[in-house]
Amino acid sequence: MKHWIQAARLRTLPLSLSGIIVGSAYAYHQGYSNWKIVVLALLTTLGLQVLSNYANDYGDGIKGTDDNRIGEKRLVAAGIISAQQMKKAVVLTAIITFLIALALIYVAFGKENFVLSLVFILLGVGSIGAAIKYTVGKNAYGYSGFGDLFVFVFFGFVSVIGSNFLFTHFIDWKLLLPAIAIGLLSVAVLNLNNMRDIENDRVAGKNTLVVKLGALNAKKYHYVLIVSSVTIMFVFSLLTKTSILPIVVISVALIKHILVVKKANQYEDFDPELKKVALSTFALSILFWLTLVFLS
After folding, report:
1. pTM of the prediction?
2. Residue 67 predicted with pLDDT over 60
3. Is 87 in a helix, a strand, or coil?
4. Counting C-beta atoms within 10 Å of the first and last residue's C-beta, which end of the chain has fewer, N or C?
């Protein structure tokens, strides 16, 4: 069991919840509340993240990409879990996650909104497919430099706006701002991961955006991701007249992070920063929720 928990990579889970928390918190601010939707949305997101982690372990493992990996050990590459076992785990996790997603859709839309239910079912299928196809298969998009785009879309737009829509059944266009901010911070986590693995990925033929940009330009790209996300959240707070406290607090941690990245000259230096940005994003979502609930 400990090996399966290790393969689930628990440290990645808080980041995946951030968008759901932001979207649900803003729904509360709008006057909508349903604890069943919150719980099922969080469980669906956790299922998708674990599915993605298992699929990545399997996909990179059978392709040999993780043979000389820096940082957290991958179980298929290490021979601790066989590729066939991991493949079965991917299928089982996908089925469980889809069933939870169906329950979420039913609670959110009931029997009356067939079209909306169908749209979200297709979105759920697409999310499961995206989680698997990042590294699995001949046309895995993570090997072609499209990982950043998919992370931005699913961790940002789908997570924030999608979770909010489950409550409200309409789109508040102001939510595009926090959706973009959370999406950019999520991409920043992936960018750190890819900066850490740049040499190994280059040798393995995994052409991430970092491999294409080069280490120096990847750092500049990273600064843009962090600064843009902070600025956008600040603008959102001003537009909605909500507290700027969450982004002010998190900005301190992110500024320190940028300084560390700027000085980093060893690939191993990026690994600790992964957790810092992921937890900063999660902390931002929690503070956002707290301020909307208690200061609205």
Report:
1. 0.93
2. no
3. helix
4. N
CA 45 to chain centre: 9
For residues 125 and 98, the answer to whether their CB atoms sit within 8 Å is yes
Q: Which residues, at least 6 apart from 242, have a Cβ–Cβ distance to it below 8 Å? A: 29, 236, 291, 292, 295, 296
What total of structural domains would you count in the chain? Answer: 1
Domain that holds residue 22: 2-295
Closest CA to 151 of 133, 170, 168: 133
pLDDT at 269: 84
Helix axes 271-295, 176-196, angle to 10 degrees: 160
pLDDT (mean) for 256-279:
89
**Whether the Cβ atoms of residue 71 and residue 25 lie closer than 8 Å to each other:** no
Q: Which two tokens mark 47?
A: 């299922």
pLDDT for position 288: 94
Tokens of 43: 């469980």
Residue in the block written with tokens 């879990």: 81
Residues in CB range of 276: below 8 A, 6 or more apart: 253, 257
Measured distance CA(296)–CA(30) in Å, rounded:
10
Predicted confidence at residue 69, as pLDDT, reads 59
DSSP notation for 190-230? HHHHHHHTHHHHHHHT---HHHHH-HHHHHHHHHHHHHHHH
Q: State the pLDDT at residue 76.
A: 82
- First vs last C-alpha separation in the chain: 43
Question: Is residue 275 packed enough to be buried (19+ CB in 10 Å), middle (13-18) or exposed (0-12)?
Answer: middle
pLDDT, tens digit, 9 for 90 and up, residues 24-57: 999 999 999 999 999 999 999 999 999 999 998 8
**66 neighbors 76 (Cβ within 8 angstroms):** yes
- Give the residue-averaged pLDDT of 281-286: 96
| Whole-angstrom distance, CA of residue 213 vs CA of residue 88 | 36
For the chain, what is the mean pLDDT? 90
